[in-house]
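Practice problem: predict the structure.
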Amino acid sequence: YITEIINELTFVKDSIREDDCTKLIDTIQQSQRVFCYGLGRAGFSMKAFTMRLMHMGVASYVVGETCTPNIKEGGVLVVCSGSGETKSLVNHAAKAKEMGARVALITINPNSSIAGMADVVIEISAPSPKSAKQGDIKSIQPMGSLFEQSEGIFMDIAVMMLMERRGKDSDTMFGRHANME
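Answer:
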């Protein structure tokens, strides 16, 4: 299975546009606060991304946590939604726009409701049962696993790009690692 999964990930990798990645990094760099949100397995990757932003000293928050502040102008909401149509995520994107914040979307569907509101759209061409767009690849993996894996890898790459821009390495980031374990 591992060879097939790696082949699937390679196909998806080749579909992601580098300039879209750069737009996301630029948007994060220009934002005072970064709010991250996704549901299910995509949400787990978004929490990991939020943690890495915190390790870099970025004011970053997971939407829905009790200690998350309000979003306002100068902030960005980074949303991961395969379909781009999940109602709660659409509502959060609309609220962010209403408050003057920017929206970045990681999705399979660049023609979705959230994409229509987004300032930045990163398309990940992976099949998912929640997306009408199935792309040119069929996955051997269940449900949306290929999208969720691809999203997680993409977010790790975005972290590495931000680290480079900010002059950070693993040692400097580890200085912000939790110490009350």
